[in-house]
Queue: 3 jobs
Job 1
Amino acid sequence: MPQDVLHLVDDGLASRMHSMRSTISTVLKESPGALAISQDMLLNVPLNTEWQTITQNREALVNDALLKNNHRHINYDYYIGQHVLKYDNTIKGKLAINTFGPFEIVCVHVNGTVIIQLQDGETEQINIHCTIPYRKPLL
């Protein structure tokens, strides 16, 4: 019985290793095993790897992702005296309010941080990505 179990485990590990090494990566356009040994994993043919092209493709993918992410950002200039809401990092329910405040901005820095007044004499420096501008209710 133990030999059968060991044989099944060995076969399972071998098939998993083969699938991981022979699966073609969408970023690299080749399998990791083929890149490591410069030979195709399924056929016995040599593989000519152009590392410069792979590097350029990866850089292009990273740049596209950055542009896509930056496109969603809204330019907004914070100023002293403005009120902001601070994001709450604790995990709550889906419909729960995830901000608290408002807090007054005491100082604005060029590195993307602001200092907010929490309580009397207590301040905190936070990144502007952790805040949203506070708009007073219309009532």
Job 2
Amino acid sequence: MLADPAVRSLIEETYNTLNGAIDTAIKTETPPELTAALQNNAFIFSGFKTHHCLSEIGLSLTDAEGHVKPFETFRKDVEAIDARYNTNYLYAEYNHALHTSQMAVKWHEILADGDSYNLQYQTAGDERVREAHAALDGVTLPPSDPFWNDYLPPNGWNCRCNVVQVLREDFPLSDPGQAKAAGDACTEEPKARIFRYNAGKDLSLFPRKHPYLPKGCGDCGRSLSLAYDPKREQCRVCLAVNEQARRAEAQRFYDRLSRDEKYRGVKFDPQTGGLSAMHVGHNTKSNNAQTVAWGMTGADLENELQRLLFQNGHIAILCDESKRKGKQTLPALDMQLDGVMMDIRSITKKKRHYGSALRDKNKQLARYNGRSDVRVPADTVCLYFHEGGMYHPSKVTGGIKWLKTQTSHINIREVVCVIRKEDDSIEIRRHKV
């Protein structure tokens, strides 16, 4: 159903409304990873909203006894459903997207200052403020306090609360326990508990436990983390929505990068949703120019990886590695894959495990995340296997275990293994760290 062009237009209509809210909050200096995450979440939300609306319309075709309703009765029911979803609900959803986007952008600006300032919770200060929200007014805690993981506004539909940075010496710190108790009370109703999240930290526009979204989530590797079961309708919807969201994100990237003089080789395949591009500052020399295996240089292997990802419908952007601070080149990462920043290591030799490769990339992530201009820390490494036979799950998991014996500072959270096959297709395996 969701693949139907007419249904796709309904999804896009909702998405365009929500994306309009996001656009008002995005600034020139907003990290592109944050912008992409909010837009992608808005599209996924729009897809599930459309699914729920159309499912309800389908159920309204018959009455309680299972008889088909007269057309006029059915038409009035459909109009009522449309008004509820696309006027009443959409009004609250637009306001939430607007406020959440603003808070997400503000959170990343706050992170740049660390705990140099405290954060203070402030209501709108008028007669419309909810009593439970008024109890949070004036709560003052450092940004690192766990309170902000759950109670960064908005804390409900049409919530107008805000947070501001204040000088540490101007206001006494609140008691963390009392602040959490007030936050719990503010969101104690079952329908309000979904708002216990931090949009900037979680990179999520809408609550992950929103009623539109699938229940019973686990970890299937999908972007919605659904415990995948092909027999479940919600799982099939999840796949369809995420595929459309991925293609919509690729189209947005292409529209932007094709007009940007800093990128070359920008290609988009509307059939697969594949997108590839290379920043003019990407390193194709230095160590990348040395022949490493199979008569190929590091740059050859990197380009092959990007080509295969593109052919198989992925978004693969080779990133800028030329930024400097004074005379020193800043640490950089190789690639953005499907919106996720990561560093690449091509595996060219068979080993007992790949711990040394992970150790080197763990250090590179630490150096990159230490840059003052990095707002969204990177936590992913890509291992590319030009010769697919070199991949074995135990060699990756063994490498992860070995890495943990070498350092307590683990920056890697996921290892993405791209395995080339003889027919030039690829298999992608993901390993959690």
Job 3
Amino acid sequence: MIDSACKCLILRRTVVWRATDVSNLRLYPHRRNSFACSLRYNREITMSMTALQTYVEGFGAARLGEYRGATTSAVFSGVPTELAALRAGCGVYDLGFRTKIALAGKDRVRWLNGMVSNNIRDLAAGRGVYAFILNPQGHILGDLSAYNRGEWLVVDTDRSQAEKILAIFRKYIIMDKVEVSDLSEKLTALGISGAKARELLTKAGFELPEPASPQANDLQIVDMKWRGVDCTLVCNLASGDDGRRTSYEIWLASGDVKTIWDALLAAGATPVGAEVLEIDRILSGVPLYGVDIRERELPQETEQARALSFTKGCYIGQEIVERIRSRGNVHRMFAGFVAGDGAQIAPGAKIVARDAIAGDKEVGEVTSVAALPAEPGRSVALGYIRREVGVPGREVVIGAAAAKVVKLPFEEAG
């Protein structure tokens, strides 16, 4: 049952931060607790220590940093080791920068289906989908994953978006029988990813269900008990298509996070910090809201077809999305870029196409950048480019760097 009572909670010191790129990840030594008061529904979302950092002081991190709305570990053993584990072995990481919002009430499915860009109406129990929240002009106000938990729905998003999404929910719940509960301080999560993730979870004592067949790049969610601890396992069904990117999440009560974290490390998982999570995100070609996806973007510009359903019926912004689909593509597209001459690339840098006849022409901008630890002087970037120019292999200039357009995700990077 969802607790609707307002509670005063102890949080870590709050700070103000907005993510941009890996180079701007703010780092600092461990700090002491401070106090703040929080209300369940209309509370202000603040930058706070994750539950893992709270219950496992330091938890072996070399440095802390602020990432996607929360303070967590930035680095453990170093970028090369952590990135290798996350891709070829098994990495475990803090997902306390995510927040959970529960939706109950008899109108919850109909109401959320009318709020987001993907199909909630036909979402089976135990399944989840990725979706956008749009304004009436079709621009993206936020992104989230929504799960059907049977008698309620759970929305999962970054802490940096939580206050904004809660405000949007409040605005559009009018006569609807929908109850909203912020579960942020009750639940936290750990992530497990890599080629050996399933093997390691089994070794740690988790009885994993057989993977379900992917349906429109959706998510599978299963409740389970591990050594007496109640938890929920989320499997990204689309992440394992290449046999090495299988990823899982474990949702659990904040007070149990130390027990499972220690068990995963004992089974052989390598702890991974936010710095490598950001590099891996860029290498995987996944846009981050607030960095790569902003309010001025339209859904089709982001190339995130997994966030859209064209059969679900009406929702806010649907008219614009359908108009784009029926009349043709948008002019810009989300793409990847590789630069190898050692020149520095920064988010916000303009992308220029050179033409012997027409001369130089600005055709896009960079939104995220990551240096490749195994290849000094080589960088990868995400950004937007004019669709007619964004052909894989096309040579462009980013700042002072010669670069090429590449298909996402980056296949041989890292």
